[in-house]
Amino acid sequence: MARISTRIESIAESATLKVDAKAKQLKAAGRPVVSFAAGEPDFPTPPHIVEAAIEAARDPRNHKYTPAAGLPELREAVAEATARDSGWSVDPSQVIVTNGGKQAVYQSFATLLDPGDEVLLPTPYWTTYPEAIRLAGGVPVEVFAGADQGYRVSVEQLEAARTPRSKVLLFVSPSNPTGAVYSPEETAAIGAWAAEHGLWVISDEIYQHLTYDGVPFTSLAHATPELTDRLILVNGVAKTYAMTGWRVGWMIGSADAIAAAGNLQSHLSSNVNNIAQRAALAALTGPQDAVATMREAFDRRRRAIVAGLSAIDGIECPTPEGAFYVYPDVSGLLGRDWGGVTPTSSLELADLILDRAEVAAVPGEAFGPSGYLRFSYALADDQLAEGVQRLQTLFG
């Protein structure tokens, strides 16, 4: 009898966290590593949110168990924010507060999937999606869209991948890892197609407040109202409010799906940390000035990194319209000699870059096919400039 579950043994460690951990280890050892690996804003959480948490910690009410699905006040605030930002008016009972968006992603798949059910997975994808699908017993079906398509899949591609076993479509806009944003027309077409074929859709909206150049964010809930009976939205405070470590996310869906997910959460984790929930409440209901300030900084860094990487022969770097990542095609650097090393994959290229330039990036293998690197530009301007300069020197 196997000591470890084959289901768990088949799951790989998060590649983004692995690369980031290695970069931090090297920094701790005294090496001046510039890390573009983690999707984590370099800003501190806004002060009024921190103060709300401090006050909450002093309140004995927050020292006890609370409803497993979340504090009623926070569920109400999430419902109001969803109506405002996603165009979907939901009752607070349709909201479950989770330990970050990652739990909401897993819980959504676990709620919907039976063994063998297929999930249409637009690729490149965030590294956790296929693992969460497999954990829930599902089968990820990759639908690839390259740089030539702006990393956005088409209805025709999705239809070609659909089978009688297809149950769920994963939809992510703005995207991690590519920064791609689907237009209102593309979003509506995909939503209408999913509704026509009776598919569930899990839509990750964690980057909804991070779009640039006047590009609008469009929620499937708003674009395709007829889909909302088979739609789950995943979101959280991590990226918008620089609260990655607070671990507060949520999922929103139809009454039956949320009731089932609530039963799961009651056994899986019960309620999220009450102090963090109070902080998230302050984030959603308090001043939003910091959100705009951080977005302006991300936009500045976005333009700087695109220009810097595009100046390197062998790198094609599309300009992302959302999130805080660039996802350049680096196939032009492969198969070439770089000081005695000839990388043949983006995994080998990432190792070369870390070793020779002390720059950490995540290889495309973590998100789908080889030949790409993901760089997060959610780091300080001077570090970004230094990292890009090192890459230009290495490949100059």
Number of helices: 14
Number of strands: 12
CATH homology superfamily of the largest domain: Type I PLP-dependent aspartate aminotransferase-like (Major domain)
From the 3D structure, determine the CATH topology of the largest domain. Aspartate Aminotransferase, domain 2
**Shape, principal axes of CA atoms:** globular
The N- to C-terminal Cα distance equals: 54 Å
Rg, nearest Å: 21 Å
CATH class assignment of the largest domain: Alpha Beta
Number of domains: 2
Strand share of the residues?
Answer: 5-15%
Query: What percent of the residues sit in helical stretches (DSSP H or I)?
Result: 40-55%
Poorly predicted ranges (pLDDT <50, ≥5 residues)? none
The CATH architecture assignment of the largest domain turns out to be 3-Layer(aba) Sandwich
Order of helices and strands: HHEHHEHEHEHEHEHEEHHHEHEEEH
Strand order of the largest sheet: 2-8-7-6-5-3-4
Give the biggest sheet. 7 strands, mixed
Overall mean confidence score, pLDDT: 95
Provide the structure class.
alpha/beta
Please describe the structure with a list of short key phrases separated by commas or semicolons:
Aspartate Aminotransferase, domain 1, alpha/beta, seven-stranded mixed beta sheet, 14 helices
Question: What can you see in these coordinates?
Answer:
The protein has about 400 residues and is an alpha/beta fold. It folds into 2 domains: about 5-45 and about 290-395, Alpha-Beta Complex (Aspartate Aminotransferase, domain 1); about 65-285, Aspartate Aminotransferase, domain 2 (3-Layer(aba) Sandwich), CATH 3.40.640.10. The chain has 14 helices and 12 strands. Helix 3 runs antiparallel to helix 11, helix 4 runs parallel beside helix 11 and helix 12 (about 290-310) packs parallel to helix 14 (about 380-395). It is globular and about 60 Å long.
